[in-house]
Amino acid sequence: MGLTSAVQSGDRLALSRLLSQIEDDTPQGRAALEALFPHTGKAYLVGVTGAPGTGKSSLVNRLAYHYRHPPQGEEPQKVAVVAVDPTSPFTGGALLGDRIRMQDLAGDPGVFIRSMASRGALGGLAATTTGLVQAFDAGGFELIFIETVGAGQVEVDIASLAHTTLVVDAPGLGDDVQAIKAGILEIADVLVVNKADRPGADQALRALRTMLQLAHPAPRTFRHHNRIFEAVPAAGPAPSAQEGPAAWEPPIVATVSTEGKGISELAQAIEAHRRHLIDSAGWGRRERERLGTELDLRLQQALVSRWREQVDPESYRQVLEKLVSRAITPQEAVRALVDGKDTP
Amino acid sequence: MGLTSAVQSGDRLALSRLLSQIEDDTPQGRAALEALFPHTGKAYLVGVTGAPGTGKSSLVNRLAYHYRHPPQGEEPQKVAVVAVDPTSPFTGGALLGDRIRMQDLAGDPGVFIRSMASRGALGGLAATTTGLVQAFDAGGFELIFIETVGAGQVEVDIASLAHTTLVVDAPGLGDDVQAIKAGILEIADVLVVNKADRPGADQALRALRTMLQLAHPAPRTFRHHNRIFEAVPAAGPAPSAQEGPAAWEPPIVATVSTEGKGISELAQAIEAHRRHLIDSAGWGRRERERLGTELDLRLQQALVSRWREQVDPESYRQVLEKLVSRAITPQEAVRALVDGKDTP
Predict the structure, then answer these.
(1) Which of A84, A149, A168, A314 to mutate to test the interface with B (most CBs of B within 10 A)?
(2) Is A163 helix (H, G, I), strand (E, B) or coil?
(3) Which ipTM score applies to this complex?
């Protein structure tokens, strides 16, 4: 049985091997993803981001446990977690790694947690995350959490491409952590105040409510980077009309993830947002945004690699040296390399 | 007098206007940068990064003050600060903004601090930072600090492109902040333990020393993203031979930035690294790496924009819709768009 059919049939070892190949950006990994692509698009993606110290990992663990042990009458779902970990391959990979995180969920074949050290993503962080998510999707995982630390442009972009994005806050963080929080509020579909048993929790909740009121009714202003065409709406009415009768107002949920408090309320908020996406045309719009971002990334790579194939590395080097010595400007350098114009 | 000559002559208002145009990515801003480029390359760039909560901003303020009021016998230098602030245009811009930061340095024409909200960088974070640095460089600022929060791929890349990169740590940070730290140690030329009067400072110093010993003699393994040619060395001996007789071992400096302690020791460590760069061929190598990264970014943009000019947005939209419906794979979509191949 080939790798792709093994992954589809739920073979954990095959999936694990595929995930490594995606991280290493191997030709086999790329080919397998291409073969699996028609079988993707079924999973529900939940982005989880927030400043360091807010307890995102333990929150995601609790959520995963919740979906594995749902209230009576609901089916348990297969859950995968892709954690973008800001650690280094150099220091031995994900410090908050798979082992520690797996304790609650150990031995459950319906859960798969993969920590990816952000500097270890050879094909780039966004592309690697997309690949891992697609592999889990094709492998039959119904719910995929994408967890990032919300302090970087790329990391926030990644989390915001999910169907539902949770932004996690906690009381008592330092000033610059607060500033990070402010930068990512606008991508939240659901706001979480974790560690809500700590002093200052009420204050944190009030502050978030005020910020949301100030923001409302401003639309989601968040703009993705690297889009080739600024906005490519589907045929049909404008996005605002597609939103349905009522726009979504992000609810705020208080949790204590270490004690499992507020987790079912959070799951309900996620479910409410999922229904909203289905009722409005939001689902398709997010899917289009996500695949559009992936397409643009691949177009860029294809254009660059085609150009590289027909350029002489030596002339590239010469142009770069002229640039370093300030004999030419960056624009002249680009013209020389792309149009073959002579440099002064 | 035109904008570019006004900037070169030290006109603060003109410089301020140019900085805004660079942030807004206007055609005038781009043209001015192009005209100023031959006058750049003189400034010394110091990257400052570290996890949230380590006190980077106050450290940079103190350093700026130090270079403005140097020990007897040394000349004061003109100092600029580009602070990449993880805040949102939506919440009113840089929370840790220029006003608060300027208190110590207010009224000194030899200091210019610019906070850039990371989501406000219309041309992309890396390109905007590069532009701001070039504007300060052409405006005669001799020392430019580039301060980022080290929790994102792009942000760490930006700081590491300086001549000297400081990585700032502090005692008593939470677990995931520690993990962020581990991810950025490898780009450090100088390590700083700030807030060294706090409990746990000795432990933090010891931990860093151990990590450095484990790392040594591993070379700087850090790899920049988006390079079109993996390594384009200058003509001449291999980089390792150019390093000079002794490789650089990052020193660890303890500081208490709120009280100004350890600041002159830190300045000495920066100066020692600067001399090392000049004595080895490191200076030119970093310059080449920085401009190479900029060149590659611009090449990408040029290739994409040329391609976009000759593609029909409607056919792009159709290909994207086929991708969303899983009728074609990403690779087929790219082939259809770049080679004009028919899709199934």
Answers:
(1) A149
(2) coil
(3) 0.84
